[in-house]
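STRUCTURE:
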């Protein structure tokens, strides 16, 4: 995250989280209709932006995403963290 925040300052861009925002340890207030407590630090995740990230990754790379299914004892061979960066 530190590298991505540095890149934001250098380019005026914004990074996209690899998952939901986790800045508020007591839970995000936005789903409750309240404003974000840390709007200057919070970043959106792919799902929140409406991106079909699984399809995008599989369509544009040689990766086939794998998923955990702990009740069935399925543990993927590998996991992926997918971040992004938007700027003009």
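SEQUENCE:
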């Amino acid at each position: 995250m530190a590298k991505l925040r540095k890149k934001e300052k250098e380019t005026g861009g914004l990074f996209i989280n690899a998952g939901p925002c986790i800045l508020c340890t007591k839970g995000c207030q936005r789903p409750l209709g309240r404003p974000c407590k840390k709007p200057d630090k919070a970043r959106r995740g792919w799902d929140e932006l409406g991106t079909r990230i699984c399809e995008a990754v599989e369509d544009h790379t040689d990766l086939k995403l794998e998923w955990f299914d702990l009740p069935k004892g399925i543990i993927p061979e590998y996991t992926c963290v997918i971040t992004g960066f938007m700027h003009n």
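REMARK: The first strand starts at residue 14 and ends at 16.
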